[in-house]
Amino acid sequence: MTDDKTKRLSVYLPEKVKVDLERMADETGLSMTQLIVMATHGLLANYGAMGSSIFADLLSAKQRMSQAMEQQRKLLDQDKQTLQDYYGARADEYERIYKREDPDYQQGLTMLAQAMTNVVRGQRVLEVACGTGYWTQFAAEVADHITGVDIRPEVLQIAKAKPWPANKVALCVGDAYRLEQVEGEFECGVANFWFSHVPKNRIDEFLEGFHHRLGAGASVFMADNVYVPGRGGELIRKDDSEDTYKRRELADGSQHEIIKNYYSFEELHDIFKPYVKHLNIFVGSSFWYVSYKLE
Ligand SMILES: C[S@@+](CC[C@H](N)C(=O)[O-])C[C@H]1O[C@@H](n2cnc3c(N)ncnc32)[C@H](O)[C@@H]1O
Predict the structure, then answer these.
(1) Whose CA, among 46, 64, 210, 259, lies 20 to 30 Å from 203?
(2) Does residue 112's CB lie within 6 angstroms of at least one atom of ligand 1?
(3) Who wins on pLDDT, 11 or 215?
(4) Does 194 contact ligand 1 (Cβ within 6 A)?
C-alpha cells in the first residue's frame, strides 16, 4: 500500500510563478524542476532552523500584499475625490480655458468640434463628464438627442443655464465608472477632456463600462490635451505612480494637484485598438482625438 505522505506531489503553479521560473531557468541553466527542488530544500532548511514560524512569515507576506492593494485603492479614491473637488471649485472659471488667445489653439478647438459633430450627427448620444456643457452645445446642434453626465452638480448647474434646443438635451449627475446607472438608450458616446483624468490602472474599467453601456456597433469620440511644456501648470511625476499630475491654482488662490495623463499616437493606438474596428486617431499640436466604432 502506498504511504500517503510520500505519494508523488503534483504542484499547481500560478502563471506568474511559471513565467518567473522559466526566466530563472534560462538565467541559471538549471531546469525548472531542479529550481523547485532547490526552493523546497531551502524552505525545509529554514523550517529546521526556525520551525513553523516560517509559514507565519509567508502568510503575513500575503497579508502585507493585500494591505498594499487596499492602500493603493485608498490613494485612487483620494485622487478621484481631489479631482471632483477641483472641478466643483473651478466650475465658474472653467470655460476660460476655451478662450485662450492663441490662433493655433483656437483652430484646434474648431477642428475638434467639426470632427465630433461628424460622429454624433443624427445619433442618440451619451456624453461622459460633460462639465459645463461646452461640447454638448456643438453636439446638440446636430445630434438626435444628447444626455450629458457629470459627477459635479456645480458644473451641471452652469450647463443647465445654457439655451438648449427643446427636448434634445438631458443633463444629470452621474459617475463615469457607473454608467449603468444612467437612463436612456444610446448609439454614440462622447468623452472630451476626461480620458486624461482616468488613472492608467482604471482605463480598462472605464472603457469596458462605457462600451458596455453604449452597445455593439456604437460610435465613440474622445478628445483631450497633448502635452505642451509650460501650458496648464507644472507636470508632476511621482515615484509610486504610473500617472502624471498637474499643479493648478484657481482664482481664489487655492492650490490643487490633479491627475492628468498625456498620450502619444502609439500609446493611444495600443489602448484603443483591442476594443474597436475603424480606429481613427489624430494627434495635433494642442489636442488629440480618437473616433471609432465598437465591434
Ligand atoms: C476637464 S473637465 C471636462 C469637462 C467637459 N467635458 C469639457 O471638455 O469641457 C473634467 C470633468 O470631469 C468631471 N468628473 C470628474 N470625475 C468624474 C467622474 N467620476 N464621473 C463623471 N464626471 C467626472 C468633472 O466634474 C469635470 O467636469
Answers:
(1) 64
(2) no
(3) 215
(4) yes
Please report the DSSP string for 30-85 in residue order: --HHHHHHHHHHHHHHHHHHHTTHHHHHHHHHHHHHHHHHHHHHHHHHHHHHHHHH
- State whether the Cα torsion 220-109-95-241 is positive or negative: positive
Q: Is any atom of ligand 1 closer than 6 Å to the C-beta of 222?
A: no
pLDDT digits (tens, 9 = 90+) for 46-69: 888 888 777 777 767 667 777 777
Global pTM reads: 0.76
High-pLDDT (> 70) share of the chain, %: 94
Dihedral sign, CA of 151, 154, 157, 159? negative
84, 256, 289: which to mutate for ligand 1, most atoms within 8 A of CB? 84
| Residue owning grid cell 461646452 | 134
Residue 150, ligand 1, Cβ within 6 A: yes
User: Rounded to the nearest whole angstrom, what is the distance from the C-alpha of residue 91 to the centroid of ligand 1?
Assistant: 10
Show the DSSP H helices in the chain as ranges: 15-28, 32-50, 53-90, 103-120, 134-142, 153-160, 203-214, 265-272
Spatial distance between the Cα atoms of 265 and 212, rounded to a whole number of angstroms: 25
C-alpha 203, offset from chain centre = 3
Does 261 sit in the ligand 1 pocket, CB within 6 Å?
A: no
User: CB neighbours of 101 closer than 8 A, spacing ≥ 6?
Assistant: none
